[in-house]
Known about the structure:
By secondary structure, chain A is α/β, with parallel strands linked by helices. Helix content of chain A is 39%, strand content 11%.
Amino acid sequence: MALSHLAASASRSSSLLKPLSSALSLRRSISGDNSPLTVETSVPFTSHQCEAPSRSVETNPKELLTFFRDMALMRRMEIAADSLYKAKLIRGFCHLYDGQEAVAVGMEAAITKKDCIITAYRDHCTFVSRGGTLLEVFAELMGRQAGCSKGKGGSMHFYKKDSNFYGGHGIVGAQVPLGCGLAFAQKYSKDETVTFALYGDGAANQGQLFEALNISALWDLPAILVCENNHYGMGTAEWRAAKSPAYYKRGDYVPGLKVDGMDALAVKQACKFAKEHALKNGPIILEMDTYRYHGHSMSDPGSTYRTRDEISGVRQERDPIERIRKLILSHDLATEKELKDVEKEVRKEVDDAIAQAKESPMPEPSELFTNVYAKGLGVESFGADRKEVAFLREAMHDYSFLQMEKSFYALSFIAQRSHSSVGTAHPVLIYPGLYWEDSFSTKKEEACA
Amino acid sequence: MLGIVRQKMLEQSLKKIPPAVSVLRSYSSAAKQMTIRDALNSALDEEMSADSKVFLMGEEVGEYQGAYKITKGLLDKYGPERVLDTPITEAGFTGVAVGAAYYGVKPVVEFMTFNFSMQAIDHIINSAAKTNYMSSGQISVPIVFRGPNGAAAGVGAQHSQCYAAWYASCPGLKVLAPYSSEDARGLLKAAIRDPDPVVFLENELLYGESFPVSDEVLDSSFCLPIGKAKIERKGKDVTIAAYSKMVGYALKAAETLEKDGIDAEVINLRSIRPLDRSMINASVRKTNRLVTVEEAFPQHGVGAEICASIVEESFAYLDAPVERIAGADVPMPYAANLERMAVPQVEDIVRAAKRTCYRSVS
Lengths: 449, 362
């Protein structure tokens, strides 16, 4: 039913473009051009305490093709992460975003890198949409130096401050007050930018959300709370966790908008609207109606609390990538083969990034003690056995570590011992038991009193 | 040195004595193997069956059968009135549970990990721990807070902290940390029966491990006393005190030390608050050396408290400084090699024990 809508609007709005596109078809590249195109969202917006924006979204071929490519990349990336997890190259927690890509790309299309985004642990795709590279993603997931957090954070702790992406948080709901804090700082600094704080339907019931919302409304902060409602908080369906699953209305005195989160253009329109609103009137809630194909995490099959029919039903009817593909094809912006080629390219990109990430080494043992503090404390920081180095240095009569530079210069003595490490055949360097913090900081001079 | 060699030979000849004797020293006669998961599940089942006031509350404890399957089957058996799935709102549901306990029912609250208990810690400390005192005995709080605590595998900084020291510093709370299946069963039953708030610290990596359990342990009336530690391995050269997963590491370290002629006594603390100071002190007065082992951050930790207790009560008996093995003083890194360095390994315990014996550690 949505498709007929699209077809109708396509014939109406692109009849003028047809002669142009055919003239250019010989030179047309897959990247498209900026000629305006208007598309209707799949469903109208539902609003609470505000006037909903129009269903007609302005876009252009280039944007649509970028949406397609970016979402295909994200999809491929998440599926590759699934395989890596099963191959035990990724450990711990791994929460995958496939199905929800439209929220990440749609949001990014409406804002700039000066606006802030903060989210929870399902953060791989949001990181990429903020400019993170595939290498940084896979290397971080595998705990390597090339990772965005140098291997120290893991799946749930991706950050990219230079693009105003503030993570990556493991504790459900905590990122929302933090996001309101970012908005506070933006207003304080008079930056005319906004913050998007993303959370799930599970987190929507957290008290701290309402506390932060109250403060944001009182102080008119440019905070946009985005509920990515994928209808399940881990294994608990929304109706079992929330008395009122109309998350866009939960702000009460704070306006809200319900958006089809599987429609990237609807997401873009809503975020654009929200940004304008937040800069003028303070906080607003966006509820993105979306869906995750995977379970909550890699340790959750995702099928004990929902039926396979439901999952495949959403995949058939609402898949965000398919929607854009149909849009592109119906508007004649690319051929099916060209789109398939994009998917092949994307797959190769992902495979190359994984190969490169596998080459990246594990962090140096000395990294265990870095970045605990911004400048270091100039005091001892201990490993599991605080006396190990003290013994070793005496035994080896090696006092070179005692040379102190102007600031506290650390030298941790690293000795070799063999013990079975994760999958490597050679002995692994052990850690120093005693370490003077942050010796390699460029702020050494400042640290010295 | 020679004394140690002589003692070693004596030990070896002692070991030739029929197995029944040596088995009695460490375990009750082992009939069955039981995983920690089954031990906890059976303990919950039996206590819920025995007392209708006991109910469970937590995220995914019911329909999902438990995030770590500890509460498997209990929803089917006891129904949704006694096994309650909560929203992901720790502060809220913990407060609700403590309030219910004021009234006289007996909640067993599950935190998916104790990291999330920080969202609820005000209710654990201010609403639960202190109330019996503030009301001068009118309102006791028969509540149990349980869940996995400490480091798992590759879960990163926000999901790996050990909270034993934090909770154990608070008067009004009881804090338990089981190691074996016997501990898990006995201590959980004791916790549920206890009229005071109990923090029950499990370990995710131990859930699947099997331990021998005797018929006595399997009996539904089995219960372990709160506040008593257990000597897992008798020895006479050095005392190694540990809790939870580190007890297993300490036992492995003791095996390694034995090869070098050091006979380690391993104490499984079981109870962090109240700490079994008398047993630890008695052990140190016998061995004259102490190594404390914990996975948690070192500063102001359980090991620090034990060391203070020894210095206060048994200073003259110490032949060497107390050694503390703890987690590294950094947030838990994700990378596998860094994570391994951030938690104690068996070699660390062996090295520390050797240091107390003034032995070369190479």
